TrEMBL record:
<keyword id="KW-0030">Aminoacyl-tRNA synthetase</keyword>
<dbReference type="InterPro" id="IPR002319">
    <property type="entry name" value="Phenylalanyl-tRNA_Synthase"/>
</dbReference>
<dbReference type="InterPro" id="IPR006195">
    <property type="entry name" value="aa-tRNA-synth_II"/>
</dbReference>
<dbReference type="InterPro" id="IPR022911">
    <property type="entry name" value="Phe_tRNA_ligase_alpha1_bac"/>
</dbReference>
<keyword id="KW-0460">Magnesium</keyword>
<comment type="similarity">
    <text>Belongs to the class-II aminoacyl-tRNA synthetase family. Phe-tRNA synthetase alpha subunit type 1 subfamily.</text>
</comment>
<keyword id="KW-0547">Nucleotide-binding</keyword>
<keyword id="KW-0648">Protein biosynthesis</keyword>
<dbReference type="InterPro" id="IPR004188">
    <property type="entry name" value="Phe-tRNA_ligase_II_N"/>
</dbReference>
<keyword id="KW-0963">Cytoplasm</keyword>
<protein>
    <recommendedName>
        <fullName>Phenylalanine--tRNA ligase alpha subunit</fullName>
        <ecNumber>6.1.1.20</ecNumber>
    </recommendedName>
</protein>
<dbReference type="InterPro" id="IPR004529">
    <property type="entry name" value="Phe-tRNA-synth_IIc_asu"/>
</dbReference>
<dbReference type="GO" id="GO:0004826">
    <property type="term" value="F:phenylalanine-tRNA ligase activity"/>
</dbReference>
<dbReference type="Pfam" id="PF02912">
    <property type="entry name" value="Phe_tRNA-synt_N"/>
</dbReference>
<keyword id="KW-0479">Metal-binding</keyword>
<keyword id="KW-0067">ATP-binding</keyword>
<dbReference type="Pfam" id="PF01409">
    <property type="entry name" value="tRNA-synt_2d"/>
</dbReference>
Length: 331
């Protein structure tokens, strides 16, 4: 009978050596040595045929063997668990294991646009400056020669804040006012930034981006602004453009024009420009008899749409990874 203990132990050892000691294989050994069909079970059944005085001794013997087998099986389970834990630990400590790749991000197309635009203006000798996005009516309108209650003010679809006389700037022209008051003429500045209007469709977003350019000097002209605006757009887009300047109206420039670019078979409105109105220079404390100015404001989102051939501006703000993934650092 003690032979059973030895056989059982040998089977467990063999499984262990073969690296195959698992709860499942131990179950099989258990059922072979302790199950209903086992030798041990038969021996227990055979006790019925023994004389009562022999039965007691035999029962004792069998119980000893059963306990021995049970303890071999119990140890085997513990060993299997330990082996599994060790294997996991060895893996966790495998310094040669391949790392998990991190998903690679990319800059947003508008960030690319900002970077490139700043570079172009800096190379042309402009200072890049910024201004606040929360403004008051004075900087957004009145310092820019909008008459009080002028319909143009309502046409701007302004977001008014609950705090009195606070609004989200509707254009970057507000920075003209800050710059004129702060800088000594002559100067040239470019000011990119976010602007806001209650407007939303495939070519308008309630938040969008503009870059304003302003030059104040003694002898600049309308020819200069036309040349510079077009040169800027062509440099950014990297190609010659089919364009048209349309006479237009802005309270802060006179004369004023808008620049349209041919896009497919359509014209797309891209920028407003003009000579700074003398009232605007005067309001900012600049001698309008000595200095003239010109300015333009271009939609950065629209420039980016043209550059990357995007037909719906909204994709720029929906943050779909599949869309954004296309704009890797090489752009
Ligand atoms: N601020 C104007 C707009 O948002 C654009 C503009 C800028 C026009 C500078 C003339 C001069 O539409």
């Amino acid at each position: 009978m003690n032979n059973l203990l030895q056989l059982c132990q040998e089977e467990v050892d063999a499984l262990h050596t073969a690296g195959n000691l698992t709860p499942h294989t131990i179950d099989q050994v258990k059922s072979k040595y302790l199950g209903k069909q086992s030798e041990l079970s038969k021996q227990y059944q055979g006790m019925r045929d023994l004389a009562p005085d022999q039965r007691k001794d035999a029962g004792k013997q069998l119980n000893i063997v059963r306990q021995g087998l049970e303890s071999i099986i119990k140890e085997a389970y513990i060993l299997a668990e330990q082996t599994e834990i060790n294997a996991e630990l060895a893996q966790a400590l495998d310094v040669t294991a391949k790392g998990r790749p991190l998903p690679e991000g990319s800059l947003h197309p508008l960030t690319h646009a900002y970077n490139e635009i700043n570079k172009i203006f800096t190379q042309m000798g402009f200072s890049v400056v910024t201004g606040p996005e929360v403004e008051d009516a004075y900087h957004n309108f009145y310092a820019l020669n909008f008459p009080e209650n002028h319909p143009a003010i309502t046409m701007h679809d302004t977001f008014h804040l609950t705090e009195e006389d606070r609004l989200l700037r509707t254009h970057t022209s507000t920075v003209q006012v800050h710059a004129m008051k702060k800088l000594q003429a002559p100067f040239r500045i470019a000011t990119p930034g976010r602007v806001y209007r209650c407007d939303h469709d495939a070519t308008h977003s309630p938040m969008f981006n503009q870059v304003e350019c302003m030059v104040v000097s003694e002898n600049c002209s309308f020819a200069n602004v036309k040349w510079l605006l077009l040169k800027f757009c062509e440099t950014y887009l990297g190609k010659e453009l089919a364009y048209r300047f349309r006479p237009s109206f802005f309270p802060f420039t006179e004369p004023s024009a808008e620049l349209d670019i041919k896009w497919g078979d359509q014209w797309m409105e891209l920028a407003g420009c003009g000579m700074v109105h003398p009232n605007v220079l005067k309001e900012a404390g600049i001698d309008h008899n000595k200095y003239r100015g010109f300015a333009f404001g271009v939609g950065i989102d629209r420039l980016a749409m043209l550059k990357y051939n995007i037909s719906d501006l909204r994709v720029l703000y929906e943050n779909h990874v599949e869309f954004l993934k296309q704009f890797n650092a090489s752009l």
